[in-house]
Amino acid sequence: MSAYTCPKGHASATDDFCDTCGARMTGAAPTAVLPPPAPPTGDLCPHCGAPRAGKGRFCEDCGFDHHTGKIPTLDLPGTPPAAWTATITADRAYFEANAIEGADFPDNPRTRTITLPSPQARIGRRSASQGTTPEIDLADDDPGVSHNHALLTLSVDGVWLLTDLGSTNGTYLNNDQKPLTAGHSKPLTDGDEVHVGAWTTIKLHAPA
User: Fold this and answer.
1) Mind giving me the DSSP string for 169-180?
2) Are 31 and 5 in contact (CB under 8 A)?
3) What pLDDT, in 10s, does the model give residues 105-163?
4) Which of 63, 92, 152, 207 lies at a CB distance of 3.0 to 4.6 Å from 82, suitable for a disulfide?
């Protein structure tokens, strides 16, 4: 919007009478209002183009991380993080290597995939008398699994840990020849295989 200067030098928003002293504005020339000064030049955010504040690590407009070159991502409220899954199979190779006396490999073994519940999933066999209700229940799958066999726990760092709970037949990880020591935990990664009971293999899958 243009401003006008009255004969006495006052700035006025009207062109008929000065809104400061009341003088007639006859012949007053409009004075252009200057645009706001341009922002200081400097480094710009490569993601959104906003000026970078000094040497700050993060863009104040979009959150771009100048150190890593990435936009930080956060889980939306009410949206659970992507979950790990586990595929449970009757593993004949593990059964033959184990050779538990008195156990016969099932005629119609089943394979199933479950979502690992956070923050922990107990591996075992349900028992009304003992009050055990494991999240990974192998009561109908493998008689060689203890009622409280092993525990999968999600750490605060987002890593799943495997712990043997003093099982009878031991808990084995991948191709290790020795079972886990009771109470000792090992971190798990995508594709790791946990062997329990007479023939059960539980393969871990990280979120895609």
Assistant:
1) S-EEETT-SSPP
2) yes
3) 999 999 999 999 989 999 999 988 888 899 999 999 999 999 999 999 998 788 999 99
4) 207
DSSP assignment of 53-69 equals -TT-SB-TTT--BTTTT
Name the DSSP letter for residue 138. -
Buried b / exposed e along 145-170 (16+ C-beta atoms within 10 A): bbbbbbbbbbeeeeebebbbbebebb
Q: How confident is the model at residue 26 (pLDDT cuts 50, 70, 90)?
A: low
Nearest to 115 by CA among 150, 88, 138, 90: 88
Give 144's contacts (C-beta < 8 A, 6+ positions apart): 98, 100, 103, 168, 169, 196, 197, 198, 199, 200
Burial pattern 56-84, b for ≥16 Cβ within 10 A else e, equals: eebbeeeebebeeeeeeeeeeeeeeeeeb
Sheet of 148-154: strand order equals 136-137, 120-124, 148-154, 160-164, 185-187
Instruction: Go through the domains of the chain in sequence order and give each one's CATH number.
Output: 1-34 (no CATH), 43-73 (no CATH), 85-205 (2.60.200.20)
Q: Where are the alpha helices (DSSP H) in 77-161?
A: 92-98
| pTM exceeds 0.70 | no
